[in-house]
Design brief:
single chain; about 375 residues; alpha+beta; seven-stranded mixed β-sheet; two-stranded antiparallel ribbon; 16 helices; about 40% helix; about 10% strand; elongated
Amino acid sequence: MKIELKRIPVREAVNGYKDNAEEGVTAYGGKLDVRPKYQREFVYDDRQRDAVIETIKQDFPLNVMYWMTKDDGINYEMIDGQQRTISIGQYVSGNFALANRFFYNLTKEEQNQILDYELMIYFCEGTDKERLDWFKVINIAGEKLTDQEIRNAVYTGPWLSDAKLKFSKTSCAAYKLANDGGTLLNGELNRQHYLETALSWINHGEIDGYMAKHQHEPNANNLWSYFQDVIMWVRKTFPKYRKEMRGVNWGGLHNESKDKKLDAEKLETEVAQLMQDEDVTRRSGIYPYVLTRDERHLQIRAFTDNMKREVYEEQEGICKKCEEQFPFEEMEADHIKPWHEGGKTTSENCQMLCKDCNRRKSGK
């Protein structure tokens, strides 16, 4: 890979700066693609963005940036420096103020000081593989890329561009749908968490396989249609929203239960009861439990060491099943009346069994 360091003043770097939701971000007289398809979205918060401008105003050095020369030898795409470049472009374009002063409020001298500031930029030439490898290497020292941001660097194409419009942009369709009536998803849009979640749902966790298969398709309509089906199924099945619904694997539950006849009223009654059960320690697990009956989702409260020791002493170390005597360490606590039949996690409902008997009783 050929690398050459150049000093480019801000006035040239952000000349013709444009940020379009569909066409992307361009600068340097339209010759620089600031946000190539494999790049992350703009993730700087106000404090980080302001720090970039303050660094320039103080004439302190910014970290070097990396531009890749395209095959035509005229245009460029940014490998590293997107967050800083967009911060500068937004400020010079008048999108935000620093210390209550927009760029156009500054004196001519102050404006020129910013515009004349020289950015240190490495111009790089190389193959597509070298570009992606270099992109990963130089980003290790910066803000860590998410797994989905790395995938986006590999599976670029028309499908990904459309998927990002639907799942990654501010106030995109996926965000509006998943938050209308209560938030169902965890994560941040611009860090690709919504897109990653939808991909995980539709292909049972095999995200790379799905992206590779659909990489060159013209749009992501199938993924969007599936995502809509999942969210509408959730709203219909569990119409009363609770904060515990956020982050549940709704896609997996939809895939398994979408064809079952479910009674939303009965489910709501059971959910409400379980929410009040002090033995349920993972309340977000109530939703998968009422559909699958797998108690592991609930993390039923375990017997305390004091409860187990109390019952062990009462039993004089004798297993309630095989009636053999064992050391305390070789015995386990068991619900006499199972939790799903109304049994509570109390000393009165506890019996100590040897490990073999407890495993046979539990079907393990």
